[in-house]
TrEMBL record:
<dbReference type="InterPro" id="IPR013538">
    <property type="entry name" value="ASHA1/2-like_C"/>
</dbReference>
<protein>
    <submittedName>
        <fullName>SRPBCC domain-containing protein</fullName>
    </submittedName>
</protein>
<dbReference type="Pfam" id="PF08327">
    <property type="entry name" value="AHSA1"/>
</dbReference>
<feature type="domain" description="Activator of Hsp90 ATPase homologue 1/2-like C-terminal">
    <location>
        <begin position="26"/>
        <end position="162"/>
    </location>
</feature>
């Protein structure tokens, strides 16, 4: 039976904030690992049919994850996540940006601050991600780019990875 996870996607253009709540049918430690280890992130962190490749990653405060989402034609869409705060297995905060291959942020695209919290539920783990943009226009830009649809696809792939890892 396919899990029926709780999923909420709330975009508030007055505060330029997006909140995503998603429940996973796996224990918190495993869901945490899937968010913090490059070999696991690469298995799910891109909407289908894209894949993800890590260029470099240091999961620690002051560290970063520099990665690319790659399409079937081998076009790389670069991103960079800088870790600003980490409380193991419960929370991390980042600054997230589109970037170039060197990791330099693309300042023509929205840059955001992510606050990601993990908590236990009766069915597994709830992940709440609060994303703050600099302006309502930046938030609208990522919505128009397909953020909700991309996240939905990406999180469904995480469900598949978690199911494989818990067999």
């Amino acid at each position: 039976m396919k899990p029926d996870p709780e999923f909420q996607f709330i975009a508030d253009t007055t505060t330029a904030k997006m909140t995503i709540r998603r429940e996973f049918a796996a224990r918190r430690e495993l869901v945490w690992d899937c968010h913090t280890k490059p070999e696991l992130l690469e298995r799910w962190f891109a909407p289908k049919p894209l894949s993800t490749k890590t260029k470099s990653m240091e999961f620690q405060e002051g560290g970063h994850w520099h990665y690319a989402m790659v399409d079937q034609d081998d076009t790389h869409y670069w991103g960079r996540t800088d870790y600003t705060s980490i409380t193991p297995k419960t929370h991390y905060a980042t600054t997230d940006a589109f970037s170039d291959e060197t990791g330099a942020p693309n300042t023509d695209m929205p840059i955001s601050d992510w606050d990601v919290t993990f908590s236990d539920t009766s069915k597994g783990t709830m992940v709440e991600t609060v994303i703050q943009y600099a302006s309502p226009d930046d938030l609208q830009k990522v919505i128009d780019m397909g953020m909700k649809e991309g996240l939905t696809s990406t999180l469904e792939t995480l469900d598949e990875v978690l199911a494989e890892l818990t067999k």
